[in-house]
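Morning F.,

Quick status update on the modeling queue. The single chain you submitted on Monday has been processed. Sequence for confirmation:
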Amino acid sequence: MESAKSIRLKIFGVGNAGVKILEHIARNGAPGAELIAVNTETDSLNASSAAEKISLETKLTRGLGTGGDPERGRVAAEENSETLKNACNGADIVFVVTGLGGGAGTGISPFLSQMARDAGALVLAFGVTPFDCEGNCRQRQARQGFKDLKAAADGVICMPNQNLFRLMDENTSVMEMFERANELLAETIANVSRLITSKGLIELRFADLCGFLRERHSENQFATAEAAGATRSRDMMEKLLAHPFLDGGKTLAESDAVFVSLIGGPDLTMADINRVMEPINGKCGRAQVIMGAAIDEKFQERLAVTIIAARHVDAPTAKAAEESARGESPAAGPELNTQIHRAPTTRPNSRFVPPPPSMTPEQMEKFMGRQTPGATRARKSSNKMRQGTLPLEIVSKGRFDKSEPTIHKGEDLDIPTYIRRGVALN
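Structure tokens below.
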């Protein structure tokens, strides 16, 4: 069995929100973890206490940030790919902590997650999404960023800031609300990192954690609670089961896998663990439950529990992806991952036929002079002729190549009239 102490954990705080959450993690304590701050804004990095700081400054951003544009964030990551790759090297587990909806976190985090996976690390992303009041633009960017993270990381834990209203009243200030959001996510990350890197009473094997997340494309919910004193296990469970993020236990019942992290002091007993795990196991009807318990000297007479409930989303098969790219309906089977986007239905290129040549007034008069009653027979005979196609090169319509046809009363108006109606040209 691989020792937990040999596992190298790196925690990246990405963007303004990620760097701030990293500060909370540092205060809560994440023994054995390497903290790395990544941002495009130099002021944010200068205020960080992280041991390693990576500035993704480009000619476009010039250290002033991305202006809320995720594409700028991704470009900054791509231009500094070697720096990010070197930062990921040697890590067994990588946590990517970020805020979704802005430019840096939304654009950089998926790219960083993919690079960490390419380096061989298990990647777990933690993200916070905007409050509803922050506008539909940030909400839309956050949804796309979440999809990109699911495609790049082994698992994603996402905390909607809007859910914090369940924990606070209307008189809570804006600063307190954001601080509480950062603190909640930091507590969860710190507890999980302690379980991985600290001495375990019941150790979580690295292989178990890999099996829990690797290639599962998990969507995760989490909750954390803490209590102290002689009745700490009972008090802590009451808090945990009443946690709004667990929705009265409904989240546990609908999950496919549940990860439980217990952190206690040297006085942690098996009786404490049993009092915690018995109600959790009772709620997890069909879920695979993985539990680990770690000892931390700072938790004397205290007990902290973090639950991560995962709902696995099947990765798309190669056949389904190919059918989706062709615009076909996939065969019956598991629901496809939301990262697969259907290619727009294309239609064949229209054959370009030049318009009829222009005529001078003299040529037009001569042409009209031929249209006499005596020519009726010739015209009837000519009606039997079929319009031929000139052997011209097919010309692409450029950016309009995949546009939808203009259909009116069953006719494609993009095709010239004299072709649709079979009018022969002289």
